[in-house]
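Chain A, query sequence.
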Amino acid sequence: MAGAAGVAAGLVTAGDAVAARPARPVPSPGAGRHHAREREFRGMWAATVTNRDWPSRSGLTAAQQRAELLALLDTAVARRLNAVVLQVRPTADAFWPSPHEPWSQYLTGTQGRDPGWDPLGTAVTEAHRRGLELHAWFNPYRIATHTDPSRLVAGHPARRHPEWVLPYGGKLYYNPGIPEVRAFVQDAMMDAVRGYDIDAVHFDDYFYPYPVAGQVFDDEATYRRYGAGFATKAAWRRENIDLLVREMAGRIAAEAPGVRFGISPFAVWRNRATDPLGSDTRAGVQTYDDLHADTRRWVKEGWIDHVVPQVYWHIGFAAADYAKLLPWWSEVVRGTGVTLYIGEALYKAGDPAQPAPWQDPAELSRHLTLARTHPEVRGHCFFSAKEVGADRNGAMARVVADHYQPRARPPR
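Chain A, predicted structure.
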């Protein structure tokens, strides 16, 4: 997810050295202290794919899984957060008893095996008990982190419909261009929306997969069958993803009107050199062109309730400067009714593999201070739960001290 893998794969361009200068003067970290909003989004992602954040490993007992989940929620409370974005459909599977897809292998170690409890139901109940929102995070099209359909449980929809499946980049995906696929993945997700008192539906940045050098996402036959009237395959692919977003928004509104719909895209829609409407960036990936996700349109059309761009770079980064993307997204949402939260790369803080700004515990606090100068920004979401708890270099504690006193309720 939420972009860590995509960012690593995507934003590498020639000359991407760390830039020492920010795009504009940045206030000191403490400038926002004691000026917390009464309502703002303070969230964290909790990834389950490959057991990144929770459960800590597959095969734990139901009691151990539950205890870890409650500890995760308690960590959110301790850090003065008010929302948890929990990944409940990481790879065409389920963290609830779904009639459409098998139980996730990340629970028991065996896809399809009943874990003996209802993780999503427990997460919703216990989050609300603690005053936290619970956003259910779904990945629409990823089937598996390998390319062998025989490793999927017997009866898996991808085995029943091999014509729906495409291998690419070492993974299996549902083909977004097939109308039956689009209907099926919506049905699978809507089962959780109808069955649980979740606060929001959340998509991450994976639509069509991130480009892999030397490989082809082989949907040519699908394009020939369904792409009449589109000048290019890229335009047809974008329409497929637009349909997914628009239709999902309509179904949520019709069947669960109190549930919000949010998406957390890779933060660069298009570079300005590609499109004058784009951001002043030089990213190696552009969601419009490479993931066929017209994220700007979704906001302008009001198809989603909130957008959480993954602005996973430091202030002053030459290829994608946090201080340039923040005002770009603020302008995009202005006047649309769509709420803007900013995705923050807590996972980079204190990582010795990251450049110098990420070794400074104050970097993320500076992000929030800068965001306060843009009234469109109504909160932040941190990737991810493991780092919120471990807080490798104290960056999260600095955010709490500088910005999260006192507690705040989420925006509605």
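DSSP finds 14 helices and eleven strands in the chain. The domain at 4-142+177-403 is CATH 3.20.20.80 (TIM Barrel).
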